[in-house]
Specification:
Elements: E1 2-7, H1 24-40, H2 49-60, H3 70-78, E2 86-88, H4 90-96, E3 107-111, E4 115-119, H5 127-144, E5 151-155, H6 164-175, E6 178-185, E7 190-196, E8 199-202, E9 205-206, E10 222-226, H7 233-241, E11 247-251, E12 259-265, E13 271-281, E14 286-287, E15 295-296, H8 309-319
Parallel strand pairs: 1-12, 4-5, 5-10, 10-11, 11-15
Antiparallel strand pairs: 2-13, 3-4, 6-7, 6-13, 7-8, 8-9, 12-13, 13-14
Length: about 325
């Protein structure tokens, strides 16, 4: 998930191993990437940075171009142990911000018993693609709210991550206004996520998705569905519903990367996508591992015509809640 963006300059200070002729450009590039990791990584305190640097420069060997150091940078990221940090090559970085992102549609429909159903997939791509995601998602919420849903199912089982803010812009009217979570960095500093008039904010600042009126007063009961494929920003949405009154989760443990990444653009156009914060729910509980559901239910994906046990269990619970009973 994108927390912030930063440009990267070059800094020296490392010497290549004896007998190796690494270029100044490659040395500065690798050193800059390692500096970013040491200064900002969530788990920076768990790493022997002298050893990481020695190993990275040995692996980069006689690198001449920035791209020759990418493998060494990836290996250094792996040593952080967060399971979420990664390096995007310049080509991959360009593809990720393009208009040609293939994604599943946001699906909204009314279920029997006046239950609204919203399936929220991943959100990735250019500003144009993300704006379309929000419009489509809010239309899906309006469609599912007919006639005046008494409760909601938020299905995150296909959500592998991306940009969390369009997702929160879609579910914001269901979440209800107020603080819904936060990022917590390695020093314990909090940056609060909130909903105001159905739109997400970060430490009180708008994230730019426009307002949307609350659905059911923002207090209707909600069943959240998760699976082992629910990852990253999908887990952030899961966390946003944690601690909300009249809310229960069903399904399977999430992937286990409920953490926030900052995208640092390197000099060749590559992106160092670095895990810098944990997600925390509205009660202050932090997460950095798989999130178990309140009610475990074994999923039954991809079996056409067969009953969906997770959805069935969730709607049964909703049918017992005040207003739906």
């Amino acid at each position: 998930m994108c927390v912030l963006a930063a440009g990267v300059g070059c800094s020296g200070g490392e010497a290549s191993p004896p007998g190796r002729a690494m270029s100044d450009e490659a040395r500065s590039y690798l050193s800059s990437a390692l500096d970013l990791m040491e200064d900002n990584a969530l788990r920076r305190g768990d790493v022997d940075w002298d050893e990481v640097r020695r190993t990275a420069f040995t692996e980069a060997g006689d690198a001449q171009r920035p791209s020759d150091t990418h493998q060494a940078i990836t290996a250094a990221l792996d040593k952080l142990g967060d399971g979420h940090s990664e390096l995007f090559t310049p080509q991959r970085a360009q593809e990720m911000s393009g208009d040609e992102q293939v994604r599943q549609p946001v699906e909204g429909r009314a279920l029997p018993g006046r239950v609204g159903y919203l399936s929220l997939p991943s959100a990735r791509g250019s500003e144009k693609v993300l704006q379309q995601y929000v419009r489509e998602g809010r239309d899906a919420v309006a469609k599912a709210d007919r006639p005046n849903a008494c409760g909601w199912v938020i299905d995150l089982r296909r959500n592998r991550g991306g940009n969390m803010w369009p997702m929160l812009a879609v579910v914001g009217p269901i979440l209800g206004d107020g603080d819904v979570g936060s990022f917590v960095d390695a020093d314990g500093k909090k940056t609060v996520w909130s909903i105001e008039k159905g739109s997400p904010r970060l430490d009180g600042d708008s994230t730019g998705w426009g307002t949307s009126p609350p659905v059911g007063g923002g207090s209707a009961p909600v069943a959240v569905l998760t699976s082992r494929s629910t990852a990253s920003s999908g887990e952030a949405v899961t966390v946003a519903f944690r601690g909300r009154p009249d809310t229960r989760s069903f399904g399977e443990d999430t992937t286990g990367v409920p953490t926030g990444n900052a995208r640092h653009r390197l000099s060749d156009g590559a992106i160092l996508n670095l895990t810098e914060v944990k997600d925390a729910d509205r009660t202050g509980r932090t997460y950095d591992s798989p999130i178990p559901p309140d009610q475990p239910v074994v999923d039954n994906p991809g079996r056409r015509g067969s009953r969906d046990p997770v959805l069935g269990t969730a709607t049964e619970w909703l049918s017992e809640q005040p207003g739906c009973a």
